[in-house]
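Chapter review: from sequence to fold.
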Amino acid sequence: MKRRMNKNCITIYPTESPSPVLWMLYKNRRVRVFLEDIIYLESQANYTIFYLKNGKNIINSRTMGLFENVLENESFFRVHRSFIVNLNYIDHVNIIKHTCGTIALSNGKEVILSRRKIKPFLEEFANCEEINPGVTVQITNHQIAA
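The token string follows.
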């Protein structure tokens, strides 16, 4: 008997490898994505785009909120309404005190850190600092002129 995956089913399963696996539907097929392969997620209306370290993208027709709940106990953080980043792939962080910030990822992408997420992000990032010991966090009082 063939088992079908429910359309709304997004599940993380532990594996024997160090990284858990996220199973979801993509192009009417079940797709397995290791969490360690996800650099960041981006929201585009009611779709979520997964950017993987191999350069590929996976588009899912679920909202960012669903993935935020699924990934909340993993090393992911929602830094902006449109972005969830994997804390393992952060290269450096620039914060303009009390306004906003940017996060540079290992694939060269810079994502926005919203003003209201600065404090929770810094707390979460400090808790997992052993993951990225070489990451620099720069906090300035005013915007740097270009």
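Two observations follow directly from the output. The longest helix spans residues 118-127. The longest strand covers residues 38-44.
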